[in-house]
Amino acid sequence: MSQCHAPSLPSPRVLTQPMAMDLLGPDTAVRIDTSAGYHSRDPHALSIAFHLLGEESVVWRLDREMVLAGSLRPTGEGEVHLAPAPDGKLLLRLGAAGHRATIRCDREELARFVRDTFVLVPQGTEERHIDWRPLLDSLRR
Fold it and tell me: 36, 116 in Cβ contact below 8 A?
C-alpha cells in the first residue's frame, strides 16, 4: 500500500523592519515605535505591531496587496482603510467607527517592505507556502 505525501513546503521566511509611525490626534501627532512583519507561512498578510509604553504591543494584520493599492488610491473595507496623503505619507485608519485610530507612516518605506514580501513569496505562489496539515489534522479528529 502506497502512502500519499503532501508536497514539501518551502522553508519559512520571515521579514521584520522597525518603522516610526505617528498616531494622529485632533491637534497633534504622537510618534509610535512600530515594526512591520511578514511570515511566509501566512503569505497574504503582513503585520504592523504598535509598541506602546508599558503595554503589550497591539498588532494589526493587513492584506499585503491592499497596502500597495492603498499607497496609490484610497482603499479599504471594514476596520481597515488606507489612503495616500498629499505630503507623500500613507494614512491608515484602523478600528471600528467611533473607535478608529488614524496612523501616518512613510508611504515609500511601507511600500518597499511590501515589495520585499513579494520577492520572498511571489504573487500567485502564496498557496504553496501555507502549511495545511494542522487544519487537516484537526478536521480528522
Answer: no
pTM for the whole thing?
0.83
- 23 burial (CB, 10 Å; 0-12 / 13-18 / 19+) is middle
9 and 131 in contact (C-beta within 8 Å)?
yes
**CA–CA distances in Å: residue 20 to residues 77, 91, 103, 118:** 24, 13, 10, 22
d(CA 62, CA 1): 44
Taking the CA atoms of 94, 39, 113 and 119 in sequence, report the sign of the dihedral they define: negative
Please count the other Cβ atoms lying within 10 Å of the Cβ belonging to residue 66. 19
What is the DSSP code (8-state) at residue 10? P
Q: Say if residues 23 and 29 touch (Cβ distance below 8 Å).
A: yes
2-20: pLDDT as tens digits: 444 456 888 889 999 999 9
Q: What whole-number distance in Å separates Cα of residue 121 and Cα of residue 63?
A: 14
